[in-house]
Write a structure and sequence with these properties.
Length: about 450
């Protein structure tokens, strides 16, 4: 995809903002790539709309092409849609924590149950009990018992003739008496969705009150997997998804559809028949797989970094001349935010020590940062360049525009003044050979 996209847009060879036409043409290719990757059609549509909205008007960074720029935006939206962070199984509940495995027959529930049990035992150091509630297939309970022996995890002893609900109760009791940390309930599946299956799962859920309800789905079944997820979620409200047979799925489209349609996180990927074939879901990697590209994203990130350096140099030059207005402050706030505190340029200024703590404290949390930037954004250009004009009525206007309070604006102005004073003192005293001379 990235090659084709690059091809289309690189013909344009120009700088400036991405236009509606650039993005529109690129979106045709993106749409085709997503469909090839087995992404559901309505998901493709909403996804490309989102990218279009995000991309039109974005400045093309120096040294990358418009095509590469669009690919980067597509990638970012993909990662966001897939879920930005890995979302592991949540065990934050009183022991024994019940985990309910649901899904169609053959999707990989029993295999995944044993894989998860192995992982929680070995990596999480938990005591795990597994129980098969599959009363339909005669060999199902033995299958889980065999896997249990293999991964050295206990399974609930088999008592013939019990219903799924009876077994679930017995499993919970056994887990409580046996001081287990986690109890994983492996349910029966059907070849297709049916009401009897749903009713049984719903009843087991009501009785065991599971902390996680994991839908196990075969990533190779594409749209069927999406429908299954929707059906289970509306009936028993799942908390996450495990996509199996990812080892045979080079495309990754099911992940995007499942996530977009259910809004539920994909927690794990099954990557083989063996018991160690289980991986954390990594949105970056799956996004890369869907787009079939690697280097473009890194390239654009690198170019964006260089842009920051250029910007920092320009700011340094202005500071050296003793200029430091609220736009410079905003640049600095972004820089600090990105570096997680007093880093970059500010950290290099010796004179800043005086106000350092104040700035650091103000930027400790994300909320404060966002409010400060909102305040500056709500000002007119004239106000940002010359904060002296900020009188009571202007401050009131800015406060309501940014959803903040006048006191916050005063605090920001005070911080800016202190910083500007430091800059001025340094600019004047140090002149051309000041601490920033090397940068500018
Ligand atoms: P269940 O009916 O949902 O319990 O499904 P099973 O756990 O019995 O799995 C059905 C088949 O799929 C078995 O042969 C498994 O070995 C296989 N299987 C399960 N997960 C994976 C996976 O992630 N990759 C591959 N290649 N095979 C898997
Ligand atoms: Mg099974």
């Amino acid at each position: 995809l990235s090659d084709r996209l690059g091809g289309i847009l690189d013909k344009l060879k120009r700088r400036g903002a991405l236009t509606e036409a650039d993005v529109g043409e690129a979106m045709r290719e993106v749409r085709r790539a997503l469909i090839e990757a087995d992404v559901a059609l309505d998901v493709v549509r909403s996804f490309t709309d989102k990218v279009r909205q995000r991309a039109v008007g974005v400045e093309v960074i120096k040294s990358v092409t418009p095509g590469q720029m669009v690919v980067k935006i597509v990638h970012d939206v993909l990662v966001e849609t897939l879920g930005s962070d890995a979302d592991p199984i949540d065990l934050n509940a009183p022991a024994p924590v019940p985990i309910l495995m649901v899904g169609l027959q053959g999707s990989g529930k029993t295999t995944t149950t044993a894989k998860i049990a192995k992982r929680l035992t070995e990596r999480g150091n938990r005591r795990v009990l597994m129980a098969s509630l599959d009363t339909r297939r005669p060999a199902a309970m033995e299958q889980l018992a065999t896997l249990g022996t293999q991964v050295e995890v206990n399974t609930l002893p088999i008592v013939p003739g019990q219903s799924a609900v009876q077994i679930a109760k017995r499993a919970m009791d056994a887990a409580r008496f046996g001081n287990y940390d986690v109890v994983i309930l492996d349910t029966a599946g059907r070849v297709t969705l049916d009401e009897a299956l749903m009713a049984e799962v719903a009843e087991v859920k009501a009785i065991t009150n599971p902390h996680e309800v994991l839908l196990v789905a075969d990533s190779l079944t594409g749209q069927d997997a999406v429908n299954t997820a929707k059906a289970f979620d509306s009936r028993v409200s799942i908390t996450g998804i495990v996509l199996t047979r990812a080892d045979g799925d080079g495309r990754g489209g099911a992940a995007l559809s499942m996530r977009a349609v259910t809004g539920k996180p994909i927690k794990l990927l099954g990557t083989g028949e063996k018991m160690d074939g289980l991986e954390d879901f990594d949105p970056q990697r799956v996004a890369g797989r869907i787009l079939g590209m690697g280097d473009v994203v890194a390239l654009v990130e690198k170019a964006a970094e260089n842009l920051d350096i250029e910007k920092a140099k320009a700011t340094a030059e202005r500071m050296r001349k003793g200029v430091f207005d609220l736009e410079d402050l905003r640049d600095q706030l972004f820089q600090m935010q990105k570096m997680g505190g007093m880093g970059g340029l500010m950290g290099m200024l010796p004179g800043i020590a005086k106000v350092k703590n104040q700035i650091a404290a103000a930027n400790l949390d994300d909320k404060v940062f966002k409010r400060q930037v909102a305040i500056i954004n709500s000002m007119t250009r004239q106000e940002r360049r010359n904060p002296k004009v900020l009188d009571a009525s202007r401050k009131k206007r800015i406060a309501s525009g940014s959803g903040t309070k006048v006191e916050e604006i005063n605090r920001l102005i005070k911080m800016h003044r202190q910083m500007a004073d430091v800059m001025k003192a340094m600019g004047g005293a140090a002149g051309k050979r000041g601490p920033l001379a090397g940068l500018a």
